[in-house]
Design goal:
Structural class: mainly beta
Number of helices: 7
Distance between the termini: 28 Å
Largest sheet: 23 strands, antiparallel
Low-confidence stretches: none
Length: 615
């Protein structure tokens, strides 16, 4: 018997890069344009800052009861904070510099003066195209307001602009126990259980009032839509609360997710054939616990919601045929079901516990076949694969331009079909020189016509229900579906090495938004209309390539070691590769260019130096 106890954690705080429309990149002539920051008293300040620290403690017991029977059991506890800041505003203009009304294209063909004025400002005035922090402090200092809270009257500067932190703290217990038993010399049994108890606390916390005295905890969209004061309270248990730095506001709930899983796998080994069979069964239960009573949903926001229960299973198997000692054929396949994710299950988990209609477990069919070569000179693998995901749930929140309200977009019955081939090879040209090559091609497409429901965020009304989304045969976007890499590594005799890789990325499609692929989007149009194709088409992004080099050396001093590694990525300084690309869910059916796609580009040449000393 032996025990191992491990504790690890890594506090991380970083300013976030941004995504922007192509017009902003063109006007600034800067592929790194980031709308998230601006100048405050002449210093740069970013409005979007990630702040995470989620350490984990892990206790593991290793029980070797015999040469043939081993049991490994672990208990882990993870906890901590996660959060990212963002601007918010009340009764004030949108402060984001790349807001569509602040771009020249909004006035193109309608107002030549504004078009020319904004073009000049974007191209020549850096402060104009970034966040104006000094303006926030000025606006908040001129916002004198009198309000009543808990039967007392308060007069002060009500912040029009603030920085809020959207928190996602968690506490998670995990347990696993895995048994391995050699039933015979050629039969290995592996069985185990896994369980987790997760509580994720999601809330907003006041980070900076930007010179104001307080913020009132009401929903400004509901305040616009309802005359009843109770309707626009974010917490009826504490109405019109004055928010100071460090206070929670807006929403506060706990995502409770309990998962338990048991599995068993048996492996058989013979001279020419190896094969395995495996199965698992799982139980997932999740529910929402609201810590605030929302004024729009007083009966469905506070306390524990109804529990959602899903029982799932999976089966898989595989076979390896040994043609010779160096040539193999490997085949695997499986079918499994998986519970929907908490984040997709609720219409708007921030403020209520209503579950999406038609919520069901996801089904997955998968299989692959490989031809493998293992020799002293050549190691290679050619694989073809097929995977189909069925009955996925998709949920997002956004501002709906047609209905002019904040809403929630949910889809059920989303299917994806992925198939392709991959080839990898490593050639030992000499004992010191290795050449490697990788190639992959795939076709990842939506393969169903899911049903969509659009709901208003501030009441129970449907803006659309059971609306067909014509997603079938659109590409799943956001990553290359074809790629290749060729490289080498040379190991010197004095403990140094040098290598390089040239990589190619292709078949990159922008992630499509469902709302443009509906009958409503095409209403009043015919096939001959240009807008018909602009609404339906899916943009394919440019292919890309990078060249990377790396090298290093190590030294030994008695029993101590010093290692130095240097890597240079994107040596050719290619700044035209998109790393993020998506269509906005907010759209105008009759003017698709009004809310164009957003992008982020790969950084150019960058360096990484690692120095390691071990003793």
């Amino acid at each position: 018997h032996s025990f191992n106890f491990t504790v690890f954690g890594s506090p991380m705080k970083s300013a976030r890069s941004g995504v922007a429309v192509q017009e902003a990149y063109d006007l600034t002539d800067n592929p790194y344009y980031n709308p998230n920051w601006g100048f405050q008293n002449g210093e740069i300040r970013n409005s979007r800052v990630n702040n995470y620290h989620q350490p984990m403690m892990l206790l593991t017991h290793y029980g070797d009861f015999s040469e043939d029977l081993k049991l490994t059991t672990s208990v882990a506890y993870s906890f901590g904070r996660g959060g990212n800041t963002a601007l918010n505003w009340y009764d004030a203009p949108d402060p984001r510099p790349d807001y569509y009304r602040y771009l020249p294209s909004y006035y193109e063909g309608e107002d030549d003066y504004q078009f020319n004025r904004l073009t000049t400002l974007w191209e020549n005035n850096e402060e104009f195209r970034q966040i104006n922090w000094d303006h926030f402090y000025f606006a908040n200092s001129k916002s004198l307001y009198t309000t009543t809270y808990q039967e007392n009257e308060y007069t002060g500067n009500r912040s029009k602009y603030i920085v809020e932190e959207r928190r996602n703290d968690h506490k998670k217990w995990l347990f696993s126990s895995i048994l391995t038993h050699n039933l015979k010399q050629n039969i290995l049994l592996t069985a185990g259980v896994y369980g987790s108890v997760f509580k994720g606390n999601q809330f907003k916390e006041m980070n900076d009032l930007l010179g104001g005295d307080w913020w009132i905890d009401v929903d400004q969209f509901a305040e616009r839509d309802f005359a009843d004061e109770n309707k626009y309270q974010n917490d009826l248990n504490n109405p019109n609360r004055l928010i100071k730095v460090g206070d929670r506001f807006g929403y506060d709930f706990v995502a409770n997710i309990n998962q338990f899983n048991g599995f068993c796998q048996t492996e058989f080994t013979y001279s020419r054939v190896d094969f395995f069979i495996a199965a698992n069964v799982s139980q997932t239960t999740f529910w929402r616990t609201g810590n605030m009573m929302n004024g729009r949903f007083p009966d469905n926001s506070y306390g524990d919601s109804e529990k959602q229960n899903f029982t799932n299973f999976g089966i898989k198997g595989g076979l390896t045929y040994k043609i010779t000692g160096r040539h193999y054929i490997d085949i695997k396949g499986g079918y499994l079901t998986r519970a929907p994710f908490f984040r997709d299950a609720y219409i708007s988990s921030r403020v209520r516990d209503h579950v999406i209609e038609g919520l069901t477990s996801e089904k997955i069919i998968t299989g692959d076949a490989s031809y493998i070569v293992r020799s002293p000179i050549l190691k290679s693998r050619l694989t073809v694969y097929y995977t189909k995901f069925m009955d996925q749930t998709w949920s997002r929140s956004f501002y709906h331009e047609l209905y002019r309200t904040f809403g929630n977009y949910s889809m059920v019955g989303v299917d994806n079909t992925n198939f392709g081939a991959e080839l990898g090879a490593e050639i030992n040209v000499t004992p010191d020189l290795t050449v490697n090559a990788v190639g992959a091609w795939g076709r990842y497409v939506y393969s169903s016509r899911p049903k969509a429901t659009i709901t208003r965020d501030n009441d129970n009304s449907y803006l659309a229900k059971d609306m067909t989304v014509y997603f079938k045969n659109y590409r799943v976007g956001g990553f290359p579906q074809a790629a290749a890499s060729l490289g080498f590594r040379y190991n010197g005799r004095q403990y140094w090495f040098f290598g390089s890789n040239f990589s190619y990325f292709g078949e990159i499609w922008i992630d499509p938004t469902p709302d443009r692929r509906t009958e409503k989007a095409l209403q009043g149009l015919v096939v001959e209309d240009n807008e018909w194709y602009k609404i339906l088409e899916q943009e394919k992004l440019n292919d890309g390539y990078t060249l990377d080099i790396y090298g290093g050396k190590s030294w030994r001093f008695g029993g101590n070691y010093l290692r130095v590694n240097l890597s240079v990525s994107n040596v050719l300084n290619n700044k035209e590769i998109t790393v993020i690309a998506f269509e906005q869910l907010r759209t105008d059916y009759r003017n698709v260019d009004k809310f164009p796609s957003k992008f982020a580009y790969m950084y150019g040449t960058n360096f990484f130096l690692n120095i390691n000393y071990s003793f």
